[in-house]
Design a protein that fits this description.
two-stranded antiparallel ribbon; 4 strands; 66% helix
């Protein structure tokens, strides 16, 4: 456990990291063991837990993107009808729902088993769902999705950042391929 003085040293040693999202500041924190704290848990376990938690966060973002797209499709009218009545918009929303539900089952299974291979698969599916759903949600919103009036663009930027955290797509694919071999 860090004492008050050592904790202040760690906070002072933390460095900001450039973020794609101005509303989400990121910081790199030094290893606590260098400041008299207990060493961090096993690195592999920490990366697995971080990847699983990030996958869960990506899942939440993917589900929220579906809700935002469906709500906008119900409210926005074009040619005298809600845009949700158009087949192209229906297909986008249906694809978003499928991606989110597929990721949901993978994340839930990985949380129950804590198996590294399942966590890799869940992170891969959740990243795909979050990024894909945010992109499709932008399509449903049209040009308004890029403005500050809608937070759709923030979902996309945050999904990009989280996709590179703890376990990248390339590393997840390698873990899955190694398990197959």
């Amino acid at each position: 456990m860090l004492t008050g003085g050592a904790l202040r040293q760690v906070v002072r040693a933390a460095r900001p990291v450039r973020s794609l999202d101005p509303g989400t500041p990121l910081w790199r924190v030094p290893d606590l063991a260098a400041y008299g704290g207990e060493p961090l848990p096993d690195g592999a376990r920490l990366r697995r837990e971080g990847a699983l938690l990030t996958a869960a966060e990506q899942l939440g973002s993917a589900a929220r993107s579906v809700q935002a797209a469906v709500q906008h499709a119900r409210e926005r009218e074009q040619f005298g009808a809600p845009i949700g009545s158009f087949q192209a918009v229906k297909h986008l929303c249906a694809g978003m729902l499928v991606r989110a539900e597929l990721a949901r089952t993978a994340v839930y299974a990985a949380a129950v088993t804590a198996d590294p291979v399942e966590i890799a698969g869940a992170k891969l599916l959740a990243d795909d769902a979050a990024v894909g759903n945010a992109r499709d949600c932008l399509q449903v919103h049209g040009g308004m999705g890029f403005t500050w009036e809608a937070d759709v663009h923030l979902h996309l930027k945050r999904a990009w950042v989280r996709a590179g955290q703890w376990l990248t797509a390339a590393d997840a694919e390698e873990a899955l391929a190694a398990d197959l071999a």
